[in-house]
TrEMBL record:
Gene3D superfamilies reported in the protein's UniProt record: 1.10.246.150
Residue segments, region Disordered: 63-89
Matching InterPro entries: Viral_HT_Connector_Assembly
Polar residues bias: start-end ranges: 71-89
Descriptive protein name: Phage gp6-like head-tail connector protein
Length: 115
């Protein structure tokens, strides 16, 4: 079972700071759902808890849940005539990489699923 208090300690958030509890719990829940869905599991194995905390930390730091606006992403294009700059969405860009960074650990627990 993933614990909010442990995630707070890992991120350096004071345990008395309740203002971040909802976004942090969301990061834990989303991470657990992602792992369970990818691996076709009903329960998170103890051996994947460390990986889950790492994923939750990455998710919290990169997606900033609970913030009204998301930070600008990387520059995707620049135009000189009439000075235009476009950015990639950091959320979309990050989601693509989050699972990829942890697939090696998750594959060991992946089960074949039929729908």
């Amino acid at each position: 079972m993933l614990e909010l208090s442990k995630l707070k300690k890992l991120l350096g958030v004071k345990s008395c700071d309740k203002t971040k509890d909802i976004p942090l719990q969301f990061a834990l829940d989303d991470t657990q759902d992602t792992i369970l869905n990818y691996c076709n599991l009903k329960e998170l194995p103890v051996a994947l808890e460390t990986t889950a905390y790492r994923m939750a930390m990455d998710l919290y730091r990169n997606e900033s849940p609970g913030e009204e606006s998301t930070p600008l992403g990387t520059v995707s294009s620049i135009s000189e005539g009439d000075a235009s700059t476009s950015f990639k969405s950091p959320t979309t860009e990050f989601k693509d990489h989050l699972l990829k960074d942890y697939k090696a650990q998750l594959r060991r627990f992946r089960k074949v699923g039929f729908r």
